[in-house]
Design goal:
Strand content: over 45%
Number of helices: 1
CATH topology of the largest domain: Immunoglobulin-like
Order of helices and strands: HEEEEEEEEEEEEEEEEEEE
Strand order of the largest sheet: 1-3-8-5-6
CATH class of the largest domain: Mainly Beta
Radius of gyration: 32 Å
Distance between the termini: 127 Å
Low-confidence stretches: none
CATH superfamily of the largest domain: CFA/I fimbrial subunit E, pilin domain
Shape: rod-shaped
CATH architecture of the largest domain: Sandwich
Length: 242
Amino acid sequence: MMKGIFIQIVTLTLIIICTSCDDREESFFELDTAPKITILDARYFGDVENYVIDSLKTSSTNGLGNYQFRLLVEDKENNASNIRYETVAGIAQLIYGDSDLTSNEALDLKDRKVLELTYKPFTELSILNIILSDKLGKEDSVYLEVRTFDNLPPIARLEVREFKVNSQYEYLLDASQSIDLDEFYGGEIVKYRYKINQKEFTSFDAEARFIFPGSGNYAISVSVEDNDGVISESANQILTIP
């Protein structure tokens, strides 16, 4: 009889302990706030805040081929533990330091708050879902969409105005408003090709002074060349000198 009572007491004690542990774990889970992951210096967002859209110039002249970005990890309880990623579209590789991460492995944070990562796309469009997890299994994620392009062409613009320093027929040919559409990615205009009637000359400066032979009508054009060797369409103007 006493033995039976003892077994019941032990069993009840174990149930209370186990229930207490479960309640405690559940309490910890409820009190834990989800971690937050942010791509720093993001320029464009999609329809939601955690969807970043960007582009990458892959021109061999420029030497670009990888998209480098920084991740900010925030966790109120300091429970953030690892980062992994999923390829949603296209083909891409995520690199941390000298290590190529695969989509099924997690990067141990080791108390790192800001991570510098490299995103190497192999298709024109690729989308990654980067997931941050804490030690209790709560998560936050951010989508990174990158479109690649080889080069955007420059656009020539021309203004001709009187200069009259050395001659009454001296004019200033100004192409300084010409632009390279991928300037943000390292593109720049390196050469200006002028044509006046049938006379052609090249300048490395955006402005050129020219003394015309006298009165008359002159067909003037300029085309610009970027640092990828791409030449724009010409900008044209007719100058009438009385």
